[in-house]
Design brief:
single chain, alpha/beta, Nitrilase/N-carbamoyl-D-aminoacid amidohydrolase, seven-stranded mixed sheet, 9 helices
């Protein structure tokens, strides 16, 4: 593992609900960050192809049989990645080409259910290691299923073990403990936007885990959301009308900022290495001292000398969970 690395966050607006066009934007940002020396590059949660902002800002989005919500969910499902598909293969090729570890937030479809899934791509790897968000928060449960322990993992890479959690998972104490025990050398914290309390959680995670944290947020205006949906070429529908109804703090103008970004990079001691960037697109980068984690362990190692296994024990079930399991019994007589 190198002593120092450069990490970046691509804080661009996705082409909302348009997966192929968003991938084009992402490739551009990743190549620019890699050309400037970044070997770890991340996006906000579910950046491909955009956080479902209608849940937070559009009136009536949670009503039963809402035509707009149904139209948007259908578009989102059609622009979600699936295990091993060409979109994930394309991201793996991008990691291979640039030599950078990529941690990319997506919508993933498995059957007919969507998941908030982050994929980690390691150069020379196999099309992404997934982590599915364990508990969608509040209105997010309208669109996402819940992940299981099989994706609560960290990834081996040339720059160390890379782990990540998504949004409010950073307020799940046992999930944090599990990831600290996974031996992270660097952690990616993915948020829709890095608000004040999200920054508090990210800095706390860095200090508690003794690991650098890449806190990634997204920048989106209302016009980005509406124009992205229109780019799908779908005739004007209730989905577009629901997006047009979005108002942020009572402001429904096209330039209203829905997600303000706030991306930042934090050292293993909790210090901010790059000041949060708000209200604009940017590639946010910083150089990280990877040796600081060992220095921090002198006083705090929550999975080592600061644990009390004689008092506390955490069991993490990493078995995949399926609603239906098919099996057969061989009834032949010997």
């Amino acid at each position: 593992m190198p002593d120092r690395i450069t990490a970046s966050i691509v804080q661009y607006a996705p082409v909302f609900l348009n997966l192929p066009a968003s991938l084009d934007r992402l490739e551009d940002g990743v190549r620019k960050a890699a050309a400037d020396g970044s070997v770890l590059i991340a996006t906000a949660e579910c950046w491909l192809p955009g956080y479902p902002v209608w849940l937070d800002f559009a009136p009536d989005a949670a009503l039963w049989n809402n035509d707009g919500a149904q139209a948007l969910f259908t578009a989102l499902a059609g622009n979600a990645v699936t295990h091993g598909d060409r979109h994930l293969t394309r991201l793996q090729a991008l990691s291979d080409e640039t030599g950078a570890v990529l941690v990319i937030g997506t919508h993933e479809r498995d059957g007919k259910t969507l998941y908030n899934t982050s994929f980690t791509f390691v150069p020379g790897g196999q099309a992404g290691l997934p982590h599915r968000k364990l508990v969608p928060t509040y209105t997010e449960r309208l669109v996402w299923g819940r992940g299981d322990g099989s994706t609560l993992v960290s990834a081996d890479s040339p720059i160390g073990r890379i782990g990540n959690l998504i949004c409010w998972e950073h307020w799940m104490p046992l999930a944090r403990a599990a990831m600290h025990a996974a031996g992270e050398d660097c952690h990616v914290a993915q948020w829709p936007v890095v608000k004040d309390m999200h920054l508090v959680a990210s800095r706390h995670y860095a200090f508690e885990g003794g690991t650098p944290v890449i806190a990634a947020g997204s920048y989106m205006r209302k016009s980005d959301v509406v124009d992205g949906y229109r780019s799908l070429g779908t005739p004007a529908t209730a989905g577009e009308a629901l997006l047009e109804s979005i108002a942020v703090n009572g402001v429904g103008e096209p330039d209203a900022v829905i997600h303000a970004g706030g991306s930042t990079i934090i050292g293993a001691d909790g210090d901010i290495l790059s000041e949060p960037v708000f209200n604009r697109e940017a590639i946010v980068s910083a150089e990280i001292d990877m040796t600081l984690a060992q220095t921090q362990a002198l006083t705090l190692d929550t999975d080592g000398h600061y644990s009390r296994p004689d008092i506390f024990e955490l069991h993490v079930d990493t078995a995949p969970r399926h609603g239906v399991v098919f099996s057969s019994v061989d009834t032949k007589q010997v």
